Amino acid sequence: MGNCCVTAGEGGGSGRKKQPKEPKQKKGKKPNPFSIEYNRSAPPGATKLVVLREPTGRDIAARYELGGELGRGEFGVTYLCTDRATGEALACKSISKKKLRTAVDIEDVRREVEIMRHLPKHPNIVTLRDTYEDDNAVHLVMELCEGGELFDRIVARGHYTERAAAVVTKTIVEVVQMCHKHGVMHRDLKPENFLFANKKETAALKAIDFGLSVFFTPGERFTEIVGSPYYMAPEVLKRNYGQEVDVWSAGVILYILLCGVPPFWAETEQGVAQAIIRSAIDFKRDPWPRVSDNAKDLVRGMLNPDPKRRLTAQQVLDHPWLQNIKKAPNVNLGETVKARLQQFSVMNKFKKHALRVIAEHLSVEEVAGIKDMFEKMDLNKDSMINFDELKLGLNKLGHQMPDADVQILMDAVSNHYYFLSLWEPLAALCYYIGL
Question: What keywords does the record list, in alphabetical order (predicted)?
Answer without folding.
Answer: ATP-binding, Calcium, Kinase, Metal-binding, Nucleotide-binding, Repeat, Serine/threonine-protein kinase, Transferase
